[in-house]
Specification:
Aminopeptidase; five-stranded antiparallel β-sheet; four-stranded mixed β-sheet; alpha+beta; 11% strand; 637 residues; 11 strands; elongated; SH3 type barrels; single chain; 31 helices
């Protein structure tokens, strides 16, 4: 037992010895944290003022260092000396000074006394740098030396600190200030911006054309079709990253615009902007734009996006980014924000249209329909009404997942049984301009509940619902007619343009087509379609989409090396990546390096039969709507 106890004591003592030999690293500011770059990085030189500020910070953070001024320079600056040693040595610093003085003078000392003083004292090591100011390394290395001595914990460094007292002194402070300031002299914003643009333009060179990849929808963003890095790219990247690290406020937004224009990604642009946005709201518009265009949204962007989604210049892009983020919290945030998105601009181009249409077509709505159902059931104002508008869109969406579509329809049917919810659903139909439940709305025009009847009347007027168009009748559906019969009838009649606009959304056309030039192009632009097709040709293209496929919208099938398959039409094609849009209107990217096989299919991505469940008058209204767009948009896309 005694032997075991002695062994335990020995082990504990050994553990204590090891712990004493490997102290925890002290927390001091690194040069990169202080200057936003490593010492010695290309194209950046801290000046003496910046060195002084850094050494003063280390003096406060570290017990291994004491900063003293040893006099004034010719230009009146303090010439600093960093005294570095083990903390316990500072307690006897005056004694070590005295020993050093007596040994250096060697007066009145016997040999034995001198040996005794040498044993008691510490080695005094003077290290200076920067005497020749244009030889910048000497001055810069002092910054790194001091940091290493106050931060490292390896045995050799600890021995240096225990046995020595290091005096780090800048030999020419005035020279460092002059040379560094001259080198970093370009402060004028416009000239610095020009330099940044030039460096970004030089980041890539045009690669050799491989003979493939140039399709009918090429990547025209420029400045290169097939950008490739070259030997100088890494140096340019370091400079751009350093500029980004140093930038604040508006500078970050400007750099983001430049980097996006030239498609360079030095450092973590989004991370930097998120950090700046915590205290500086001026970057929110640029940040929201960047996130809205990003392939993925970082989870830590949520709080900033919620701030940016309030009324202001960042609102639309912030909402689009929240929709793309697609979490439950993001969906709830969108429902909360929709009531305060303005109805500015023309229909389809207004902020509320851009946000609501993106939400109605999003996967986030499908994936988190239960969040929307819960919000709608609260019946607490416009947020709940917008939730019902989203459910109406989801229930009527042709390409939604069956589970989500059925759940939305069930929630609406259940809610319809309650008068207050029924009135909300009816108002929501007007909000989302969704008329799939027109018959039910018209049927309650005389409802015993005044709120329901009033809501039905207002929505019927807003959507221009007419009883004869939606009541059960013997009018044949398009699906019951042969194509030529349907074409003959739809050419001979006119429908209602407003009803046609509703069908454009209800039939899923909005997922793959745009009608305003301000919207990002999806599939074939329809804003001027009536100038390109006669009414019968346009109707035939809708009823039989495989007969004629617009150039550039051929269905592509990508078989990837992992065995998965992606189907869609190309929206942008570059040498290394192809962007495609699928049948649900969702866009994704395919890396060329991941493709095992690519086929062009003879069938259109647009499925036949989209009009099968509608009447001839409905279809005529859709054609009337498309024909009316040419007068509004003008020109071509």
């Amino acid at each position: 037992m005694k032997r075991l106890l002695r062994a335990s004591v020995v082990v504990l003592l050994l553990v204590g010895v090891v712990s004493a030999q490997t102290p925890a690293p002290p927390k001091v500011t690194s040069p990169k944290e202080q200057f936003a770059h490593e010492i010695g990085a290309d194209y950046v030189l801290p000046n003496y003022t910046e060195l002084t500020a850094y050494w003063q910070k280390l003096d406060k953070e570290s017990d291994r260092m004491v900063l003293q001024s040893i006099g004034k320079t010719a230009e009146g600056r303090d010439q600093w000396m960093a005294i570095i040693s083990a903390p316990e040595n500072f307690k006897k610093l005056d004694r070590y000074k005295e020993i050093s003085r007596r040994l250096s003078m060697a007066e009145g000392l016997t040999d034995d006394q001198a040996h005794a003083l040498a044993t008691e004292g510490k080695s005094i090591v003077w290290i200076d740098g920067g005497l020749h100011a244009t030889e910048v390394l000497g001055a810069q290395q002092l910054i790194e030396l001091v940091y290493q001595m106050v931060s490292r914990t390896d045995p050799e460094t600890m021995r240096f600190l225990r046995d020595d007292i290091i005096l780090a002194v800048h030999a020419n402070p005035d020279g460092m200030e002059l040379v560094s300031n001259w080198y970093m002299r370009e402060k004028e914003p416009a000239r610095r911006e020009g330099l940044m643009r030039t460096l970004c333009r030089l980041y890539y060179v045009e690669g050799n054309w491989s003979g493939s990849g140039w399709g009918t929808r090429p990547d025209t963003r420029g400045p290169y079709y097939q950008p490739e890095r070259w030997p100088a790219s890494e140096k340019i990247n370091r400079v751009l990253a350093a500029e980004l690290d140093r930038a604040t406020g508006d500078e970050v937004g400007k750099l983001n615009e430049i980097f996006s224009r030239y498609r360079v990604t030095p450092g973590d642009v989004i991370g930097k902007m998120l950090a700046v946005a915590e205290t500086d709201s001026s970057v929110l518009p640029a940040l929201a734009e960047q996130l809205a265009a990003a392939d993925t949204i970082p989870a830590n962007a949520f709080a900033v996006l919620v701030r940016a989604s309030q009324p202001g210049p960042a609102q639309v892009n912030a909402c689009l980014a929240l929709i793309k983020l697609g979490t439950e919290d993001a969906v709830q945030a969108i429902l909360t924000t929709l009531p305060v998105v303005p109805k500015n601009g023309t229909r389809g181009d207004a902020s509320i249209d851009k946000v609501s249409n993106a939400f109605f077509l999003s996967r986030a709505l499908e994936n988190h329909h239960r969040v929307v159902e819960a919000e709608a059931a609260k019946m607490t104002g416009l947020s709940s009404a917008w939730a019902d508008a989203a459910l109406l869109q989801l229930a009527a969406r042709k390409f939604a997942s069956p589970e989500a579509r059925e759940a939305a329809a069930k929630a609406l049917d259940t809610g319809w049984q309650q008068p207050a919810r029924r009135a909300q659903i009816i108002r929501a139909a007007a909000l989302g301009r969704e008329a799939s439940r027109a018959s039910s709305i018209l049927a309650v025009l005389g409802d015993s509940d005044p709120a329901v009847a009033a809501a039905a009347k207002a929505t019927a007027e807003a959507l221009k619902l007419e009883t004869q168009d939606f009541a059960a009748s013997s009018a044949p559906l398009i699906g019951a007619l042969k194509i030529n019969e349907a074409l003959d009838q739809v050419v001979a009649v006119h429908g209602d343009r407003t009803r046609g606009e509703q069908l454009f959304s209800q039939a899923g056309c909005v997922a793959c087509h745009t009608v305003n030039k301000s919207e990002p192009l999806k599939g074939p632009f329809l804003g001027n379609i009536a100038a390109l097709y006669r009414r019968r040709e346009l109707a035939e293209a809708i009823l039989d989409p495989n007969k004629t496929i617009a150039q550039g919208f051929v269905t592509n099938q990508f078989t990837l090396k992992d065995g998965s398959v992606k189907l869609g039409f190309v929206t942008r094609e570059a040498a290394d990546v192809v962007a495609i849009r699928d049948i649900t209107g969702q866009q994704s990217e395919v890396r060329v390096a991941d493709v095992a096989k690519r086929d062009h299919l003879p069938t259109s991505l647009m499925p036949p039969g989209l009009m099968s469940g509608f009447t001839v008058r409905d279809f005529a209204g859709l054609l009337d709507y498309l024909e009316s767009l040419n007068a509004v948009t003008g020109g071509t896309q």
